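Q: Sequence in, structure out?
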Amino acid sequence: MWPRVDGMRSLELGTPGDLRSRLNALVLGGRKTATTGLLREYVEETEGLEYAGERLALLNDDGRRVATVEVTGVEVKPFSDVTWEHAAAEGEGDASLEQWRAVHREFWESTGTPITDHTTVVCVRFRVL
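A: Exactly. Output:
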């Protein structure tokens, strides 16, 4: 189960350290309004999907809330069906959908999860409150 903060489910982007700090800064700066997760992580953690209108506590490495975000949309789809619109909304500076896919494959594979075009992902859109 994912941590709860002030009664809200949490949103912990990337991995602790420099990556999480950079992603949180993109959210706080308004450039990052989307994220993508693996459906299998929801299943493993027995977590339900986020839903439009849900508020999440964006956490830093210390587990402290740095912002509250509101979910504006959720889509479940195969990795190969993620759109450029969603990838660009992640705000991480990818120049193309192919680059976004390569970076995300590399990240998940570095954590021990091989990714295929058929791997089911959860695309979450949000806004900072």
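Residues 4 and 10 are 6 Å apart (CA to CA).
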